[in-house]
Specification:
The chain is of the alpha+beta class. The protein is built from 13 helices and 21 strands.
Length: 504
Amino acid sequence: GIDITSIAYEFNLPFEFPKKALSQAKNIDQNVTNKEIESRQDFRDLLTVTIDGADAKDFDDAISIEKDKDDYILYVHIADVANYVAKGSSLDREAYKRGNSVYLLDRVIPMLPLELSNGICSLNPNVDRLTLTVRMRINKNGKVVDYKFYESVINSDFRLVYDNVSDYLEGKDDFYKDDELNENLKTMEELYKILAEKRVVRGSIDFDFPEANIILDDKGVAVDVEKAERRVANKIIEEFMLVTNETVASHFGYMEMPFMYRIHEDPSEEKIAEFRKIIHNFGYKIKGQDIHSKDLQILLDEVKGKPEEQLISTILLRSMRKAEYSAEPDIHFGLATNYYTHFTSPIRRYPDLFIHRILKNWIHGDINIKNITAYEKLIQETAKHCSETERKAESAEYEVEDMKMAEYMESKIGAEYEGTIVSLTNYGMYIQLENTVEGLVRYESMKNDFYRFDEQKYYVIGDRTKKIYNLGEKVNIKVLDASSERREIDFIIVNKINNSGEEK
């Protein structure tokens, strides 16, 4: 595990909590008291579940659902971390400094000590937990027609796992023997489909392609890389978190109160021009000059199920700007909404904890801000800082993935695979294998000709043979080299594959 640790040090990620923060965490009562419950809305009688990955240890969101004629009553309960982390405390200062938890395959560098993240703040089953609840009435068209915020207490009935819930809803396995639970899961699926359809209609972009799942052995060595599919249970939770975040952001946006938003600016004209050029080679185009997210979603629908679907989705994602935090409301291009925030993960993201404090103050009617200028400056500084810590965490996570993929391929040197050309550069072509591993074919390794990248026609061509390589083409490759130390994988091309699957 030293290799992953070295990357954490490389990015200056903190392993140890200050003694004062640890002391504060250890002194927090791990049980909810009757006094704490007295002033809260009691939702313990609602059937409530968490749905997470099999390996998850911190649960910061739980779901309850009811049906009222054609309306759905969705309760999203989020751990009330702000109840335990006082503003300005040592715990709070350290959480702010970290900005977020960092997930490095077989370990987590948490934002909060385990006494909070895996203890009293985690919505574990069959124990009382303090929460902030957003209760939403959603009609059959997916519109939130009414909502209310509560400081609440819940007692989760089931700790469910994505794969098991997906198996049940997909008819593969009747895993659960509880009739009320099964009925609720079906109702959740109904509402998810309605909300997802509403988002697509308004132009929200849904990137539905697999991510890499790197399997490590008990010594931390990469022994396999496979696709991690987003199944129906994952999508249900994603959709419910999206509508909750949007409901909270819209509430404060319309009130024009100081707030922290999650924004996603329009892609740059240069990136879109390059993307147009790429998809033109596949026979696709985007109408009009001014790009709306709906135009891009129409394109993704058009390529769905086709061989080039994953490639075009990936290139489109890389053409987008990064989302970030902001004190000013602005469009979230990818979600096609004017107001969005992060509210649903306060155990692992500081912005969510920050938003919780704003919401709790509003619930208590304590929204008088003596120095509005100083408060707005605080939000701006927090937004900027949290955007930076998020970037750092993402970079560290990508570096660990690159290293472990290279480590896995070190044992595959000389092996041959089929892959797809997914990126063209001035120095080589990147080839992605079926299991999501990417390697580089350097032009200097292509000995039969001198190859170069034609940026205008967007292909690679040999000067003498005029042999052309296009994005999305299938090729057979051999693993030439792999180095976990350099975090690089090198391929050489064995041959191209034509549309019928034959070698050429």
